[in-house]
Amino acid sequence: MIDVHDADLVACYPRHSTPTLRVNFVASVDGAVTVNGKSAGLGGPGDKLIFDSLRMVCDALVVAAGTVRAENYDALRLTAPARDWRRAHGLPEFPLMVVVSGALDLDPDQLVFSDAPARPLVVTHAGAPAGRRAALAEVAEIVTVGETSVDLPAAVRELHARGATQLLCEGGPHLFGAMIAADLVDEVCLTVSPRLVGGAAGRIAAGPDGPPREMSLAGILADGPMLFLRYARSR
Q1: pLDDT score recorded for residue 228
Q2: Among 35, 65, 131, 198, which one is most buried in terms of CB atoms within 10 A?
Q3: How do beta strands 2-3 and 216-223 pair?
């Protein structure tokens, strides 16, 4: 098994020639997605390396509003070497930040908006509160898909039309579950943290029941007792 610190992470988690929606999550051995409400308690140095590499190679980072609030997201900024890599590969210096929100319960002063190096997108639906829409329009571009709920397939098509074909989703569980239900997920990058958490922490996906989707194991890396698994679907 390859140690994550010795691996070529771009080769292990590559960009693809076809549109791809990749999801990245960390979970404990007993399936918990958070410790004390945040995912940070499950990660480690190897997990951070992969986290940063996935952000470097994506065209757009898609995150639910609840995760933006709970994890206190700051601006989507990359290191200088990561920006150099993107420029060398013909990509914009920064990926596009995309926040999915039906209620638009977001703080325009949060750093993810106020310190953003590129204007983020907020994806919502036609029934979202008008006052919140106006406030967020000062710091982000508002994209409306769906009448009473966010139409995720339409959102993905809109991102593809903008040239963002390599999509990375960092959660949360309800957004991941909705993407599974809409049959949008192509890859899952799962960090298995060597911890037993117990308690009431949720699983990485939450949503409606549906048919299982078969996936193939595309890669395994390790950092001591922590495992990094990549699963892919064949379309």
Answers
A1: 98
A2: 65
A3: parallel
pLDDT of 34 reads 87
Q: What is the pLDDT at residue 41?
A: 84
Q: Where are the domains of the chain?
A: 1-59+169-235, 64-164
CATH number corresponding to 1-59+169-235: 3.40.430.10
CATH architecture of 64-164: 3-Layer(aba) Sandwich (3.40)
Q: Would you state the pLDDT for residue 182? A: 96
**pTM higher than 0.70 for the full model?**
yes
Instruction: Taking the CA atoms of 42, 44, 47 and 48 in sequence, report the sign of the dihedral they define.
Output: positive
pLDDT for 92: 97
Q: What is the DSSP string of the chain?
A: -EEGGGS-HHHHS---SS-EEEEEEEEETT----BTTBGGGG--HHHHHHHHHHHHH-SEEEEEHHHHHHTT-------HHHHHHHHHTT--SSPEEEEE-SS----TTSHHHHT-SS--EEEE-TTS-HHHHHHHTTTSEEEE-SSSS--HHHHHHHHHHTT--EEEE---HHHHHHHHHTT---EEEEEEES----TT---S-----------EEEEEEEETTEEEEEEE---
179 phi, psi to nearest 5 deg:
-70, -35
Residues of the chain with pLDDT under 50: none
